[in-house]
Structures are given as C-alpha cells and as structure tokens.
C-alpha cells in the first residue's frame, strides 16, 4: 500500500534518453560455443593437475584485470560450492543452448578444482567418468558402466496424490539395482502447462558414479545445479535413482525497478538493495554483467521467468515496450543462457500514451489492433519473450474500468494480442479502493479482490494468469491466505509472494520468509486436518501449480551483497527452491543456503546463522503488529512503528482499537462478511471465536483486550509478552552474531566473491589441499584475493542487527505504550511501559 501521490503515467517527467547503442551486446560467457573437452583423468589428491581450459567465465567474477567496481558477492555460488563437481571427471553429452551453459560451468569448476571435463558428441556410447550429464538418447547402451544406462531406470513412481502436478512419493525400490529409488518430495515430471520444455531430470548413482539425464537442456541445467547443491553427498551413499521435476512450469520473479528514478519511489520501488541491476537514472544499463550473474543465481534455484520493470508503469518505463525494445532484447539475451524468459509490465493506457489513440478501451478495435502490432514488434525482436504483466485499476494505474469494462475484458484483449506468439498475460488481482472513507466500516479492503475477480471465473482467456497476492491485504507479516486463490477453479491463478521485505523489515531486519511461504503454499482450502506435506490439489500449491505458477517480487539490487542485508539472500534462494518444490522443508532450505554460501564455515558460525534466521519471521511478528491485525507502520515508506499511522487514511487498513478492544470484525454474523468468502470448513473456523487461530484473531474479530486466547493469555498480556520477548530474541541474535563475526572477518574466502584462482590465491590454488575449501585464513596462509569481503559481510550484518534491535525496541515501546494507554490494563509482570 502506498500513500504517496501515485500519479498517472503521463504525469511523471520523462527525463531519460534511451540507453546504450543497440549493438552494445555483451558476448554471453556461455554462448561462446561448446568446450572442446579434455581427456578424462581422475583428480589427484595434491591438486597439482594442470588446469583445464575454460569455456566460459563465471559471470559473478570480475574481468581478469580485476578492474571495475566492487565485485558482487558470490551469494550461494562461491567457487567452493563447486568443489565436489570440480574435482571429478565430468562428461557432458548432448545438444541445446543450455548444454553450452552447463559445459561452461563444468569447465570452470574442473579448471578451478583440478578435475577434468569432456564434451562428448551426441551419440557417443560408453564413457568413463565420475559424473555424466547427458541429454537422453534412445540408443543408450544398457550395459555401459558409469554412463546413463549404467543405472537402471525407475520403472514407476508412486504418487501420493494424483493430478497434473502430483507430488511423488517414494519410488519403486525394486527397480534400482543394489539400492533404493529415492525421491525427495519432488513431483512428477510432466509439464503442467504445455508451454515449457520438459524441465525434469533424472539422477542415478551407482558405485559413486553419478549420471544426470534430462530430456531437454533446461532439465540438464537444473540437474547440474542439483548435483552442485548436494556436493560430496552426490557421490556417496547407496546406489539410487531419483526423478526430479518442478511442481509448476511458471516460476517467476517480478522486479519493481523503474528506468527513471521516481521522485518518490526511487530507482526501485520498495527496493532496499541499492540501485537497479537493469537501469540507471533513465537508461538501460550498458553493462549487463550483473544481470548475467543474477540470471545464474536464479537458474541455480529453478526460477525461469523474470518481469523486468515495475508494475506501476510510469511514462519512461512505458517506452520499454517500444523505443527500448532493443535494450529489452539485450536483457533477454543475458537471461537466455540460463533458461529464463523475460516479461514486461505494461501500462493499460499505452495506446493513448505511446500510440496517440484517444482511448484504451479494450473493446475498441483500434486499441486491440495497437496491442497486436505492439506484440508483433516485441516478439519479432525477442522470439522467446514471455508476456505482459498488468496492474490495472489499482492504486491509480489505468485500466478497463474507465470504459465501463471489467478485468476480463481488459485481460482478454491483451491475451488475444500475445496469443499468436505463445505469450502470457499476468493480470494482477491487487485491486481495491484506495480512496476509502475511514468512517465507513462496511467497506472492507480484504474483500476487494474477491469481489472483483471471483465473479469473472471462467471468463479469462486460456493465456491469462490472474496473479493473486498471498493474503487479501498487502504482504503483511501475517494474513490469512487469500480466498481468491480457491475461488476461481476455471481460471489460471498464480500466487504472488514478496521477497523484497516491504513490510517485513526492509532488509534492515533479518527475517527469513521461507517459513511464511511454506505455510502459505501448504495451506489446504479443504481444511486444517490434511497432510500438509502431501500438497493435495486443494492446497495453495496444488491450485497454483496446476497452471498459474508462483511469482514473487524480487529483493535484488546493485548492492555488493545483492540484497542489502546479506542474510536476505536466504529469501531469494528459498523462494526459487520453494517455487520448484513447494513441499520442501523451509528450515532445510535455510540450512542448504547456509552450507552453500558459507562453505567450510566453523560450526559456531553455521549455528549462529541458523539461530538468527530460522524463526526470525515469528520474531519479527512478535515485536510488530499483533495477532494478524497488520500494518501499524509509518505511512508511505512502511518502515518502523506508527500504530495509528493508517487509522484515519483512505487506504482501508485499520485496526479499530479503542479503550475496550481491538480488531476488525470480518465475520458474516456481525462484520464485513469476509470470513464467508472461504470454503468450508475455513469459513466456520474463521467465523467463530472458539476456533479462529490466535495468530489471525484480530484479522477476523474485534475483541476486548481481556479476551482469552487459546494460549490462555489475554489479548493485552499477549501483546505485552510478545513485544518484550521479540526484543529479547533480537538481543540474543545480535550477541550471538557479535560472537562469531570475527570468524568471518578473518576470512576472505568462504564469504568472498567467486573467482577463478589467480597468483597469490594460495588458499584456493589446490582444491584438494587440506582445508583449502573452508577458505579460513590461518597461520601460513596467504589471504586470498577478495580478502575483506568476509569482513564487509560481517560488518554489514552487525550494522543491520544493531538497527534491527533499535527498531524492535521502538516497536515494542510504541505498541505496548499505545495499548497500555488505550486499555489502562497494566502488564502482569510490571515491566517498563511508558
Ligand atoms: C508496486 C503495495 C506497495 C506498492 C506496490 C503495490 C503493488 O501497495 O506499497 O509499492 O506497487 O503494493 O503490489 O502493486
């Protein structure tokens, strides 16, 4: 939500000229053709084997000269993360653009870590290697050792549920020789939309030799990163055969980046990580190396689509669709080697503002023609372009309402324009009245998306995806799951999450959101008693995975650590991994991120990272707005406490606290009726004070401060206790970090940027040198190039934790004081309230 004057697109000054010349294409490091290979040889323990030639460069690395601005942090792909693969004899077979990407990765890894790399022609038969990455071929030799055919195929996978996006259970163990067929909660490999290449892959291990086989090159890319994630574990343990595939074909990140710096919202709306990696003060960046590095990070988590500009499309940004297409094409080229397709947010008023028409009425033939021609131009320039994202009739953005049309009219007109190209229209359901009268208690913003969209179910074209925020309000720390997700069975519905921490601490507070997203994805509209891990078709993941997919607003900028708060990288990582597999355990994903990002870190560092992040979402909830009531933030920028900040505004976000009680009555019996928008049993669960979960009580009910929660505490005592406890938790986090920060500060290695070894990098020179992977600088070691990155990371986290503590104390004292003064009820424990 936004209290800034949100102007119409045309009113924003267009202060920019277009960007770099059209021919300023940066040759993609991974588009340079296949590696010619080398003869397979086992890595030597002393790491002395000559380095293999590189086929490409890790885009997170600086040019060899080391010139240029500070290198971006390697995030979860530091060199050490590739040690297990890089030490081995790796063979790659198959064609396809992304096979070249994998080959380049392997070439770099083996050159760095002392392994070897062979690029085989399609059709080559038996070969000897520790890791084979291959596109499936029909004529594989079933007897071949250490080849794809060496490991028997899993004959079947038993699905715990059925349906297009069935989550697989344990495979049929009898089909694997000497071992098990293991699956990890992944899904069956069928493409759920028919629009994507098959992204699945199959991994088998026999006697420590691993084969990754995929039908398409995209699957091979994902299979490669799967092995990287597993590290040494990929090559040890019993023989197995696994099949992996994403739960949904559409796994997308939206950027709210502006081309021109917006007078209120800046370069990136709700961005907390510096500038944009795409744009710089009115221009598309000439150097897109940062975009390439980003694409690589995303691909390693499974993200396959990115919308590159803000859904609030101002005048300068609107021109991405026309004048700037060559630059959009450059951005698409940076993403392409990583299997990621680019989308644009477009303004519904474009036929007027760009086309000079007098209307953007979706039923006007001239308007439809304008969009068709615009789409034709886009796809002519970018043949694999993904489609358009539209925020219409929302927070001042233009839309079909101006012409008496509805959202289906608007979306379908655009859908028709992009359909010949296989394009998609992501039409956002974030539609509400932001000019509400706060005196009017009958209007409920939470109802708005449902009231607008549910009646349109079945009317949207096949290539329209209605994109729904996870909650009915706006990315609060706690909201019920939006009922719209279940209300449109005949519509493709995507879930929208927010990785950028607009309402969850703005990347100043360490808040790991994986647990929140997991709760949302596993929420079952059929009722609370199901097996969450099974993700039935009635779960959020089950519904959106079928055809709409999962979308989130990115948290990345041109900051050295990508995300402002270095630990906010965990959110970007977990998002991609959950979009691939919504059944994944978010805590396990956190540990996965820690292990990859801080390879070889001492146990106390690992422990502290886990401690600080694991329940940080719940901690943030404890010291901010209580029991699901939401907001209480400073209007406009949304950072820090302001209990009444939105109470008398037109934005529809109220808590209705008075001297007796607090909360919004959204019951059917006496309130706005919102609770009745859920299918049973949830409608009844939320309607009743007896059954409404504590954490959502004030979202659904207005209760006295003395109301006793299921926890046994009164509402007022809960508010006091959680706010004191929340701050104490942050104090513990900060102290724990202080205890380990020095260990990181001494270390330029495991937190440093990924870079190929250079003279002087002795700690990295031999991958098999004892202790080299942990990168810890110690006696006799030469500090690697990039020293100081660990120190900078540690310092950044310390600085952020200090701010988090300051802010949490402010939240605690303002919220407690506010409710003490309203209610007059003292804290049972007599703690300080002002
Ligand atoms: C891009 C909230 C944010 C806005 C954002 C909007 C949206 O209201 O505060 O900055 O606009 O959501 O999702 O469109």
Walk me through what this model shows.
The chain has 834 residues and is of the alpha/beta class. The protein has 21 helices and 23 strands. The strands form six sheets. An eight-stranded parallel beta barrel has the order 10-15-16-17-18-19-20-21, surrounded by four helices. Helix 9 links the parallel strand 17 (387-390) and strand 18. Helix 4 packs across helix 13. Residues 1-2, 256, 269-270, 310-312, 391, 430, 474, 502 line the site of 4-O-methyl-alpha-D-glucopyranuronic acid.
- Strand-pairing-aware structural class: alpha/beta
- General shape: globular
Name the quaternary structure.
single chain
Count of helix runs: 21
Bound molecules: 4-O-methyl-alpha-D-glucopyranuronic acid
Strand order of the largest sheet: 10-15-16-17-18-19-20-21
Low-confidence stretches: 1-68, 140-196, 748-787
* Overall residue-averaged pLDDT value: 83
Q: Helix coverage percent of residues? A: 25-40%
Biased composition (Low complexity): 63-72, 759-772, 779-791
Domain Glycosyl hydrolase family 67 C-terminal: 563-745, 795-831
Biased composition (Polar residues): 1-10
Domain Glycosyl hydrolase family 67 catalytic: 242-562
Topology:
Elements: H1 83-86, E1 89-93, H2 97-113, E2 116-120, E3 131-135, E4 157-159, E5 168-171, E6 179-180, E7 201-206, E8 209-214, H3 217-230, E9 239-244, E10 251-254, E11 257-262, E12 266-268, E13 279-280, E14 283-284, H4 289-301, E15 305-307, H5 315-318, H6 325-335, E16 341-345, H7 350-353, H8 365-381, E17 387-390, H9 407-418, E18 424-428, H10 445-453, E19 464-469, E20 492-498, H11 514-522, H12 540-547, E21 550-553, H13 569-580, H14 586-597, H15 603-614, H16 616-623, E22 661-662, H17 682-687, H18 697-700, E23 703-704, H19 715-745, H20 762-765, H21 789-823
Bound molecules: 4-O-methyl-alpha-D-glucopyranuronic acid (GCV).
4-O-methyl-alpha-D-glucopyranuronic acid is lined by residues 1-2, 256, 269-270, 310-312, 391, 430, 474, 502.
């Amino acid at each position: 939500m936004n209290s800034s004057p949100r102007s119409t697109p045309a009113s924003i000054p267009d202060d920019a000229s277009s960007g770099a010349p059209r021919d300023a294409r940066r040759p993609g490091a991974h588009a340079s053709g296949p590696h010619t290979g080398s003869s397979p040889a086992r890595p030597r323990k002393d790491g002395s084997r000559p380095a293999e030639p590189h086929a490409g460069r890790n885009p997170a690395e600086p040019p060899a000269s080391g010139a240029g601005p500070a290198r971006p942090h390697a995030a979860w792909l530091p060199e050490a993360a590739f040690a297990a693969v890089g030490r081995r004899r790796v063979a790659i077979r198959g064609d396809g653009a992304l096979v070249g990407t994998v080959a380049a990765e392997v070439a770099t890894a083996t050159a760095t870590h002392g392994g070897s790399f062979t690029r085989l022609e399609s059709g080559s038969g038996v070969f000897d290697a520790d890791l084979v990455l291959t596109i499936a071929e029909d004529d594989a030799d079933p007897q071949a050792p250490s080849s794809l055919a060496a490991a028997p195929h899993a004959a079947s996978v038993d699905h715990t549920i059925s349906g297009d996006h069935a989550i697989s259970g344990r495979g049929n163990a009898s089909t694997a020789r000497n071992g098990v067929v293991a699956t990890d909660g992944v899904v069956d490999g069928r493409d759920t939309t028919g629009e994507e290449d098959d992204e699945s892959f199959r991994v088998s291990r026999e006697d420590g030799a691993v084969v990754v086989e995929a039908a398409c090159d995209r699957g091979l890319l994902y299979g490669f990163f799967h092995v990287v994630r597993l590290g040494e574990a990929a090559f040890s343990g019993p023989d197995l055969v696994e099949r992996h595939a994403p739960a949904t074909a559409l796994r997308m990140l939206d950027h709210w980046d502006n081309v021109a710096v917006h007078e209120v919202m800046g370069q990136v709306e709700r961005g907390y990580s510096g500038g944009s990696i795409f744009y710089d003060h009115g221009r598309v960046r000439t150097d897109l190396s940062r975009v390439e590095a980003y694409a690589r990070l995303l691909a390693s988590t499974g993200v396959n689509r990115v919308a590159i500009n803000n859904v609030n499309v101002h005048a300068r940004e609107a021109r991405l669709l026309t004048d700037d297409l060559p630059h959009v094409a450059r951005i698409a080229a940076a993403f392409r080697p990583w299997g990621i397709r680019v989308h644009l947010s477009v303004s519904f008023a474009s036929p007027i503002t760009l086309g000079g028409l007098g209307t953007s009425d979706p039923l006007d033939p001239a308007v439809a023609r304008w969009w068709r021609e615009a789409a034709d131009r886009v796809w002519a320039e970018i043949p694999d372009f993904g489609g358009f994202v539209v925020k219409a009739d929302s927070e001042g953005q233009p839309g079909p309402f101006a012409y008496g049309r509805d959202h289906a009219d608007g979306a379908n007109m655009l859908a028709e324009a992009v359909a010949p190209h296989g394009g998609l229209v992501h039409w956002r359901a974030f539609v509400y009245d932001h000019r509400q009268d706060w005196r009017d208690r009958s209007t409920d913003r939470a109802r708005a998306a449902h009231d607008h969209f549910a009646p349109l179910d079945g009317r949207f074209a096949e290539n329209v995806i209605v994109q729904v925020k996870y909650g009915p309000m706006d990315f609060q720390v706690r909201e019920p799951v939006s009922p719209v997700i279940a209300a449109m069975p005949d519509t493709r519905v995507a879930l929208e999450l927010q990785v950028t921490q607009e309402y969850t601490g703005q990347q100043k507070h360490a808040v790991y959101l994986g647990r929140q997203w997991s709760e949302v994805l596993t929420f079952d509209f059929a009722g609370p008693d199901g097996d969450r891990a099974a993700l039935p078709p009635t779960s959020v993941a089950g519904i959106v995975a079928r055809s709409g997919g999962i979308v989130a607003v990115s948290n990345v900028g041109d900051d050295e650590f990508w995300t402002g708060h270095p630990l906010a990288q965990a959110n970007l990582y977990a998002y991609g991994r959950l979009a691939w597999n919504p059944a994944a355990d978010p805590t396990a994903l956190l540990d996965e991120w820690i292990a990859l990002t801080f390879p070889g870190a001492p146990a106390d560092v690992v422990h502290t990272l886990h401690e600080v992040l694991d329940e940080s979402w719940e901690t943030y909830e404890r010291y901010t707005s209580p029991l699901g009531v939401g907001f209480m933030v400073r209007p406009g920028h949304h950072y820090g406490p302001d209990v009444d900040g939105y109470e008398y505004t037109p934005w529809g976000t109220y808590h209705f606290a008075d001297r007796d009680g607090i909360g919004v009555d959204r019951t059917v019996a006496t309130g706005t009726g919102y609770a009745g928008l859920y299918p049973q049993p949830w409608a009844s669960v939320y309607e009743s004070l007896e059954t409404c979960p504590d954490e959502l009580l004030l979202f659904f009910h207005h209760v006295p401060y003395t109301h006793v929660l299921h926890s046994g505490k009164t509402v007022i005592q809960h508010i006091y206790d959680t706010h004191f406890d929340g701050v104490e938790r942050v104090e513990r986090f900060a102290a724990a970090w202080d205890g380990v920060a020095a260990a990181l500060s001494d270390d330029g290695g495991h937190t440093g940027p990924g870079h190929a070894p250079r003279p002087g990098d002795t700690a990295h020179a031999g991958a098999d040198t004892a202790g080299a992977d942990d990168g810890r600088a110690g006696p006799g070691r030469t500090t690697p190039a990039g020293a100081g990155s660990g120190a900078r990371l540690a310092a950044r986290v310390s600085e952020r934790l200090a701010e988090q503590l300051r802010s949490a104390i402010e939240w605690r004292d303002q919220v407690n004081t506010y409710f003490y003064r309203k209610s007059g009820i003292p804290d049972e424990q007599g703690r300080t309230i002002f």
